[in-house]
Amino acid sequence: MSETTAKIDEKGRVMIPKNIRKAAKIKAGTYVNIKATDTTIIIEPAESIAEKYGGLFQITKWPEDLDEFMVEATRKWWTNHATT
């Protein structure tokens, strides 16, 4: 685990040092989740929705009713991935 000290500026911002960003695979534009409990702050990369659900929907023609399409696509996915 990497550890370093950084200073918080007058606007509450903190610069994450390069070695920490590299170790956590965080780069410019990466979204992060920030959690706080008592005196501990945890910053971790947010999971990409595109990567999480990539390939879930395969669209050959844009649906007329997107809500109906989403319900049906989700139903098909759960049916194919259900465990017994």
Summarize the structure in words:
The chain has 84 residues and is of the alpha+beta class. It folds into 2 domains: 1-46, Pemi-like Protein 1, Chain: D, CATH 2.10.260; 49-81. The protein is 33% helix and 14% strand. It is built from 3 helices and 2 strands. The protein has helices at 18-24, 49-53, 66-81; strands at 32-37, 40-45. It has a two-stranded antiparallel ribbon with strand order 1-2. The longest helix has 16 residues, at 66-81. It is elongated, with a radius of gyration of 20 Å. It starts with 17 loop residues before the first helix and ends with a helix. 0% of the residues are buried.
CATH topology of the largest domain: Pemi-like Protein 1, Chain: D
Proportion of beta-strand residues: 5-15%
Average pLDDT, all residues: 82
Examine the secondary-structure arrangement and name the CATH architecture of the largest domain: Ribbon
Helix-and-strand structural type? alpha+beta
Q: Pick out the low-confidence regions.
A: none
What structural keywords apply?
3 helices; 84 residues
Q: What is the secondary structure topology, with strand pairs?
A:
Elements: H1 18-24, E1 32-37, E2 40-45, H2 49-53, H3 66-81
Antiparallel strand pairs: 1-2
Task: Kindly summarize this structure in a few lines.
This protein has 84 residues and is an alpha+beta fold.
